[in-house]
């Protein structure tokens, strides 16, 4: 928590009249900022079991593809929010081969950031009495946080196409990387105020 440098004896309006200082001075601000890069997410091959029949095969890069397609929040060629500019990004992957476990977390999901902030002030009424006023904002900037693509939208199946390297692709997806919902860990901006009389 930081007290704003405004009011008597502070950097700004240090010579303010007492009544003005009572209004503008003594405000305190606190904030909690959270940020992290995208979490690793899997690409799976729907209905293909390379090691057992408990879990679908994880993907590996298709032959001739040098790197994982770049991903960030954008609109794909069908106009949907997506990790990729084109659903054909799914053509760059194939199921891992028999006996292999594939690449876990081969893709990166969306980053997350959030800023919660509060501002408060104590107003002295008289000896032994004061009023505390507080305003709090959760998700101050009202930033929309999308959930990572679902397992279904990061699963490839035998849909022929062309890889980014220009080679034949035996696998693909018509919805690869598309985002269909917001994150359950985030909510729209919430504002709340509190007024407390202490004696």
Q: Would you kindly provide a brief summary of this structure?
A:
With 199 residues, the chain is mainly beta. The chain has one helix spanning 18-24; strands at residues 2-3, 28-36, 40-41, 44-45, 57-61, 74-75, 81-82, 93-95, 107-108, 112-126, 129-138, 155-156, 161-162, 168-169, 190-198.
Overview of this protein structure:
By secondary structure, this protein is mainly β. The chain folds into 2 domains: 1-36 and 111-142, no CATH class; 37-109 and 145-183, no CATH class. It is 4% helix and 35% strand. The protein is built from 1 helix and 15 strands, in the order βαββββββββββββββ. It has one helix at residues 18-24; strands at residues 2-3, 28-36, 40-41, 44-45, 57-61, 74-75, 81-82, 93-95, 107-108, 112-126, 129-138, 155-156, 161-162, 168-169, 190-198. The strands form 5 sheets. A 5-stranded antiparallel β-sheet has the order 1-2-10-11-15, with no helix packed on it. It has a 4-stranded mixed β-sheet with strand order 8-5-4-12, with no helix packed on it. A hairpin with a 5-residue loop joins strand 13 (161-162) and strand 14. The model has no long low-confidence stretch (mean pLDDT 89).
Strand content: 25-35%
Whole-number average pLDDT? 89
Q: What's the β-strand tally?
A: 15
Helix content: under 10%
Oligomer: single chain
Report the uncertain regions: none
Strand order of the largest sheet: 1-2-10-11-15
Which descriptor suits the 3D outline? Answer: elongated
Q: What is the tally of helical segments?
A: 1
The ordered H/E elements are EHEEEEEEEEEEEEEE
Largest sheet: 5 strands, antiparallel
Distance from N terminus to C terminus (CA atoms, Å) equals 24 Å
Number of structural units classed as domains: 2
Q: What is the C-alpha radius of gyration, as a whole number of Å?
A: 27 Å
Structural class: mainly beta
């Amino acid at each position: 928590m930081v007290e704003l440098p405004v009011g008597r004896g502070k950097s700004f309006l240090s010579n303010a009249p007492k009544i003005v200082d009572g209004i503008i001075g003594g405000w305190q601000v606190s904030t909690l900022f959270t940020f992290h890069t995208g979490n690793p997410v899997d690409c799976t091959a729907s209905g293909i079991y390379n090691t057992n029949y408990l879990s679908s095969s994880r993907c590996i890069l298709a032959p001739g593809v040098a790197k994982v397609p770049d991903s960030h929040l954008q609109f794909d060629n069908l106009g949907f929010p997506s990790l990729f500019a084109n659903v054909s990004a799914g053509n760059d992957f194939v199921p891992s081969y028999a006996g292999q476990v594939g690449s876990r977390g081969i893709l990166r999901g969306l980053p997350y950031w959030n800023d919660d902030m509060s501002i408060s002030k104590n107003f002295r009424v008289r000896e032994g009495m004061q009023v505390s006023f507080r305003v709090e904002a959760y998700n101050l900037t009202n930033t929309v946080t999308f959930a990572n693509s679902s397992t279904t939208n990061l699963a490839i199946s035998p849909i022929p196409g062309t890889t980014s390297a220009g080679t034949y692709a035996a696998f693909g997806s018509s919805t690869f990387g598309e985002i269909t919902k917001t994150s359950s860990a985030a909510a729209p901006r919430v504002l709340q105020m509190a007024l407390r009389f202490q004696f």
